[in-house]
Amino acid sequence: MHKKFFGMDYGCTKLRFGEVNPITGDIHNILKYSSTKYRDDDKLVDLIKQLIPDPRNAGLGICYAGDVDEENLVVNLSANSGNELKKSFAQELRSLGYDVILVNDARALTMGVSVYGEGKDHHNVIGETFSTGFGAAFSSGRIVWTHAEPGHMPYRKNPVLHCSENCNNEQHLEPYVSGKAGEILGRKFFNKNYIKHPNNRRLTIEHPILQAALKEYNLGDKTNKILKTEDMMNDKTYNLIVSNIGSKHVYEAYRREPKGEPQKNIRDLQVESIADSFGILVSVYNPVDIIVYTGSLGNEQNELMLPAIELYRNRTLNLPSLSEQGKPIIVRTAMPEPGVSGAVAYYLQKKDPEIFYNL
Ligand SMILES: [Zn+2]
Questions:
Q1: Angle between helical axes of 235-242 and 180-192 (0-180°, round to 10)
Q2: Distance 275 CA to ligand 1 centre (A)
Q3: How close is the Cα of 163 to the center of ligand 1, in Å?
Q4: pLDDT higher than threshold 80 for residue 222
Q5: Could you report the per-residue pLDDT of 239-294, keeping only the tens digit for each?
Q6: Is the confidence at residue 209, as pLDDT, over 70?
Q7: Which residues contact 187 (CB under 8 A, 6 or more apart)?
Q8: What distance lies between CA 354 and its chain's CA centroid?
Q9: How far is the CA of 94 from the centre of ligand 1 (A)?
Q10: What does the pLDDT look like over 176-193, one tens digit per residue?
Q11: In this structure, are strands 14-20 and 27-34 parallel, antiparallel, or unpaired?
Q12: Ligand 1 center from residue 82 Cα (angstroms)
C-alpha cells in the first residue's frame, strides 16, 4: 500500500487538517475545526482516529501553537491558546501505532514556505504569523534553526496596551502587530463613548465598527435573537455588541471611512508597529533574503501590510549598523495552509529524508 501523508495545524482558534502531496505541498480537502473543542488530549486523539482510521502507511505531522518538545512529543506550554497543561496527545498517538512528529507552528509555517512556497528559491527565510498572536521562525538552507516569540519582546509605544491574557505584560510587541490592537482600542473607544443621551447614542449606533460587529453577531450563533441597530439603544445590547468588536470590524470600517475614528488611529498605529517588527526581526536574523507572512491580520493587505512594507522600505528600521541593501523581500504567502503543508515537510525531514532531500 502506498504511503499517505497528513498534516495538522493546531492554532489558537482553528485546527486544520488535510492530506498533503509530499512533492508539491498541495492539500487535498482541508478540514477545519474549532480548537477549543479539542483542547483535551482524549478528544484530539479521538479526532485523529476518526480522520485516519488505519495508522499503517500513514505519516502524520502535527504543528501546535506552543512550546513543543519534539523529542518526547509533548507540548509543554501553549500560552496564547489558553492551554496551560502539558499536552501528551502525540505520545498517545504513537503508542496507538501512528507514525507522528510534533513541531511548533511557527517552525512548521517556515518549513512550509521554505520547501513549497515563496521561500523555496531563497537561502535565508523568515516565516511570520500575524494573527491572534505574533510568531516567527528562521530557516537557512531549508533547515529551521530557531523560532522566537517576538510578540513578547519589549516594545514601547503609545497608547500602552496589555499583552495577551496569559502574558499580561505591558509594552510587548504582540498587541500592536496582532488582532489585539483593533479589539482593545475599538472596544475602549465605544466604552468611552458610552453615551447616555439618546441623541448621541443614536449617532453612535450607526458607526461602521458597531454595524460590522452587529452584522457578525447576527450571522453567528443561530440560537441568538436577531438584533437590529435600534436595539443598541438599550444599554445591555449596546454593551454586548461592543464586547463583540474585533480587529476585522475596525478594518471593515476603515475601508468604508478611512478618515473616521477610531479606525484611522488604530490603523496608523499598527502600520508603524508592523514596519518596526520587520526591522526588529531583520536586525536579529540578518542577513535575511525573504520574509513570508500569513495570518488573519496578514490578510489585511491594502489596509495594513502593504503600507507597513512601504514604510519599512522608506525608513531605516534595522539596526543602524546594517546596510540598507540588507532589506529583504517581504510577501504574503499564497499557500492556503502553510502550517499543514509545513508539518508534513517537517515529518519528511525527520522520517523520510530520501523524499525530503530530493524535493
Ligand atoms: Zn507578552
A1: 160
A2: 19
A3: 5
A4: no
A5: 999 999 999 999 999 999 999 999 999 999 999 999 999 999 998 898 999 999 99
A6: yes
A7: 242, 243, 245
A8: 31
A9: 33
A10: 999 999 999 999 999 876
A11: antiparallel
A12: 13
What is the distance in A from the centroid of ligand 1 to the CA of 178? 12
- Cell numbers given for 99: 507514525
| Ligand 1 centroid to residue 340 C-alpha, Å | 26
Long-range Cβ contact pairs of 322-327 (< 8 A, separation 24 or more): 322/282, 322/283, 322/286, 326/282, 326/286, 326/287, 326/288, 327/282
Domain 4-114+337-356: CATH class, spelled out: alpha beta
Cα(160) to ligand 1 centroid in Å equals: 13
Whole-structure pTM value: 0.91
DSSP bridge partners of 10: 15, 64
The alpha carbon of 164 and the centre of ligand 1 are apart by a number of angstroms equal to 6
Residue 299 has a pLDDT of 85
Confidence of residue 66 (pLDDT cuts 50, 70, 90): confident
Hey, where are the domains in the chain? 4-114+337-356, 121-333
How far separated are the first and last CA of the chain, in Å rounded? 22
Matching CATH topology for 4-114+337-356 and 121-333? Answer: yes
CA proximity to 309, closest of 282, 274, 267: 274
**Residue 168 alpha carbon to ligand 1 centre in Å:** 6
CA of 151 to the centre of ligand 1 (A): 6
What does the angle CA 285 – CA 289 – CA 293 come to, to the nearest 5 degrees? 80
How far apart are the CA of 174 and the centre of ligand 1, in A? Answer: 6
pLDDT band at 331 (very low <50, low <70, confident <90, very high): very high
Determine the distance separating the centroid of ligand 1 and the alpha carbon of 264, expressed in angstroms.
25
- Smallest Cα–Cα separation from 17: which of 53, 69, 58, 52? 52
C-alpha cell at 12: 489558537
Whether residue 154 has a cis bond before it, omega within 30° of 0: no
Cα(133) to ligand 1 centroid in Å equals 9
CATH C-level class of 121-333: alpha beta
